[in-house]
Amino acid sequence: MSIVEVILMLVKIVAVILLMVMPLAIMLTWADRRLGAMVQDRVGPNRTVVWLPTPVAQGAAVGPALLVCAIVAYIAFGHLAGAHPAPSPEDKASCGTVFAHLAILMTWATFAIISGLVIRRGARSSLDLWLKNFHPRHIVYTGLGAHVLAIVLSSAFAGTEQGLVLQDWYYGGGAAILMFAVLLGAGYAAFAIRNEPRVGLRLLGLPHAFVADGLKTLWKEDFIPPNADKLLHSLAPFISFFPALTVFAVIPFGDTLCFGSTPDGHLDITKLAHSVPREGMCLAGSFRLQVVDLNVGLLYFFALAGTGIVGAALAGWASDNKYSLLGGLRAASQMVSYEVTMGLTLVGAMMVYGTLRLDEMVRWQGENTWGIFVQPLAFILFFTSAVAESKRIPFDLPEGESEIVAGYFTEYAGMKFAMFFFSEYIAVVSSSALLAVIFLGGWNLPFLYRDGFHVALGGTAIFDQPIAHGLVIVLGVLAFLLKVVGLCWLQLMIRWTLPRFRYDQLMKLGWRKLLPASLVNILATGLGVMLLQGAEGSLATALRVVCDASTLLVGLVMAGLFVWLVVFLLKPVHKRKMLASSSAQFAAAMGGTRNFRMEA
After folding, report:
1. pTM
2. Exposed/middle/buried for 554, CB within 10 Å: 0-12, 13-18, 19+?
3. Domain-by-domain residue ranges, the chain?
4. How many angstroms separate the CA atoms of 488 and 482, rounded?
5. What's the gap between Cα 209 and its chain centre?
């Protein structure tokens, strides 16, 4: 392995831990606290603010914008100054498409944000007076229409002289408009706060979870009970935390990147492939977006995830506390019970995919259909077991506050308590990632393949749009992250929806309901595989049509959800006043209450 490959391996580890897992877990902590504040009518983390001096805030707005513009200028126009060779027509086309859509995105997003700000606080300049005439909703709808128009024009004029001219416009004009939009937004932000004595940085309250909670737990006292087993008491949080983190080593978060190779056969990261065939794989310069590529990736996941049982049991026993012991016993029995169901549930998926490699499971779904359509019962069973495995409401019996205080980490404080607390959120992210890989297509998007978009039903092609290899990889990684975030959000909503089970109900659900259902799923899957194995002729054609129809359904649902989200976010907020009691209602119906001057 060369030095470049070692560095890239370290980059993958850092990217997975610091850019995906930890931020998602921290945002789950923030969302949990925010929802708790809304339900219980108390102050939430969104009130957190970090005050910055005005020059520092202006520099934080303008500095990154200048850096982005310098990078875009180097990529787009550096060849004119001899900084790098002129791009090939293929590279120019792919970069032009990216520049065009980024320019459209930054333009409408900048103007929509400024317009919303002007409507809230009033106009302060001639630009504000002009933007006041445009509502943010109209700007967003116009921007989305511009994206669609750019895609339609690229597809309509592909392979023609007009298409080449359009590519040049996208490349040069897109880069110039992108730099203008970035500088305009940063410049307006710096200009708007020029007279402020200080600037409050809120970021929806995210600094509370990122900074305040971390510093608070870091400086808290590390308390160990006098009669506790000090070694095991200190070891238990690490056994619970690090296995939950290391299971991400086998989760593929994107398709294979294809680079060039040096004469001695090593990876050359300066030569990213422009396009990749739909079939086959690049072997010479392949770079997997997966930390560790194992033939038994699924078994590795369960082997490490199961060690969390040991951490909970040790914490309960080593604390010398009866509540902790009860919590540890509950956690161990619960996690063992539901881990059996989790493992048996995925046997059906292994039978369908024919492999234990998670990346091969994703590729099977990309060529056929998502796993949720071939294993719907398994998806429901695995999701339920995953929520129970992470010990979240309604399965939080090991730490039920009304019964056993805080369960197995009652006697923990400071960073040790934070490791237990945070490992639960990491477990939510890890289970969501595994669900996305096995049942929701991983990095796949409907009709998006390695060489671009190909919409077809059966053998009839409807739409074809080649896309650069790098852009396909970026879209795949974003799709995977959105699926993981959606599943995390679903688990978060369950916390505030369902009440806590009794312990006998919890065990009964696992052993008498979910376990038999998982065995039935294995039987049904085996019969289905036997009947459909080696399908030929009209049956194979029918299966192909059904797979394409399911992919089309997923595409339509995703498009509908996107439209709904845009409309929901742009919908004006209507706040309704509600009377607090029936007496106030009666008084209002009688014409209101009388006010008299106070007399001595």
Report:
1. 0.82
2. buried
3. 50-201, 217-275+282-501
4. 10
5. 17
